[in-house]
Design brief:
Elements: E1 2-7, E2 13-19, H1 28-38, E3 41-45, H2 57-69, E4 70-73, E5 76-80, H3 84-98, E6 102-107, E7 120-125, H4 130-133, H5 145-151, H6 160-163, H7 168-181, E8 183-188, E9 195-202, H8 205-217, E10 222-227, E11 236-241, H9 243-247, H10 258-268, E12 279-281, H11 284-293, H12 298-310, E13 312-314, H13 315-322, H14 331-338, E14 342-346
Antiparallel strand pairs: 1-2, 3-14, 4-5, 5-7, 6-7, 8-9, 9-11, 10-11, 12-13
Length: 354
């Protein structure tokens, strides 16, 4: 395994593991960086290690549900959801995992007044709610009840104890709770073949950054869309999860409700999703060489020609182009294709005058 240092725009320097295959000429590594820079590509780690090992799936799901559909006041945690099974699960986890000394009051509203939350379950907890309060603190540390109540949905985060201390199973539960709350698990049927949609919506920019980290724990890339405020609304963010990456979670991912589990079962049962965004840099010289190696295969020849023109190709296409290629041929492309935990982000063009 060969690695090199890469210093990002933010100034954070980190190691890039560039290849899982032997490279006889380490001097080509700077060439890869120079090539990527020329083609407008920036490397980043698809996956980062999970630092913690505490808590179980139910704890993770509970915090995901609280972040999505919960709120707090002095000595009280509230949860609003029309789904009675989710409300029952939310309360049951509090009783079994936190404290049985709670008072539960459930009420329904028609949404015609100021409170448009519909049916709600309020869970009264006598003490022990510090970690729940930290959901609403953007300073990454638990804050007092008054501060937490003021900050509300715009300042939600994932508690540090969960994001940095949770086990893989706990973090999978957290992801499930988020997606079953303010998330979307559905099919886009406006196309000939229905396409899966996995998205999370929030008005907290701090939560967006935490979800990016959560995704990288599982090797899941995310893209964020900013929705400008209208009238009295606040800026909103749509976090879309990479369909090919999510599909790789397979049966390890599960949900609390039958509806979500049914979606997931159909989703992972589909053919492997195409990944047009998983691109790697390709040099003009190596792409030209690959064109000469595939003169009779019109598809591969065309792929190599496109790679030469664009300076990049998808990782899957790169693997196809390299099949049967002798050792020592196209070392740059072999290196970047083999390092599948290193992704390459296409830089956006800078149209400023500076």
């Amino acid at each position: 395994m060969v690695s090199f240092k890469y210093s990002g725009r933010e100034g954070n320097e980190f190691d890039i593991q560039l290849s899982s295959i032997p490279i006889r000429s380490p001097h080509i590594l700077p060439d890869i960086l120079a090539l990527a820079e020329e083609k407008g590509l920036t490397p980043f780690h698809r996956r980062i290690p999970i630092p913690g090992g505490e808590y179980d799936w139910e704890i993770g799901w509970w915090y995901g549900a609280l972040i999505s559909d919960g709120w707090i006041t002095n000595k009280m945690i509230g949860y609003a959801k029309l789904d009675s099974d989710k409300r029952a699960a939310f309360v049951d986890i509090v009783r079994r995992k936190f404290s049985s000394d709670i008072t539960v009051r459930e009420y329904s509203e028609d949404g015609s007044g100021d409170n448009k939350l519909g049916e709600s379950t309020k869970v009264h907890i006598s003490g022990g709610s510090e970690l729940a309060q930290s959901v609403f603190c953007c300073n990454r540390e638990p804050c007092n009840e008054e501060e937490a109540a003021k900050r509300g949905a715009l300042r939600k985060i994932i508690p540090r104890e969960i994001l940095q201390g949770g086990s893989r199973d706990c973090l999978l539960g957290l992801l499930a709770g988020l997606l079953e709350g303010d998330g979307t698990l559905t099919w886009n049927r406006n196309t000939k073949n229905p396409r899966p949609v996995i998205r999370f919506s929030t008005s907290s920019p701090y939560l967006v950054e935490d979800i990016k980290v959560l995704g990288r724990y599982f090797g899941v890339r995310v893209t964020v869309t900013t929705i400008k405020p209208r009238n009295r609304s606040n800026t909103a963010y749509g976090v879309c999860f990479s369909i090919p990456d999510m599909q790789k979670l397979g049966t390890e991912m599960r949900f609390m409700t039958d509806k979500a589990n049914d979606f997931w079962s159909k989703f992972i049962g589909r053919p492997e999703a195409k990944d047009h965004l998983d691109v790697v840099p390709v040099s003009y010289a190596e792409a030209s060489l690959l064109m000469t190696l595939h003169p009779t295969n019109s598809r591969l020849y065309g792929n190599a020609a496109e790679a030469r023109s664009a300076g990049r190709t998808t990782r899957k296409t790169g693997k196809l182009l390299l099949e049967g290629v002798r050792p020592g041929i196209c070392p740059l492309l072999k290196a970047v294709v083999a390092a599948d935990d290193v992704c390459w982000r296409v830089k956006k063009p800078d149209f400023s005058d500076n």
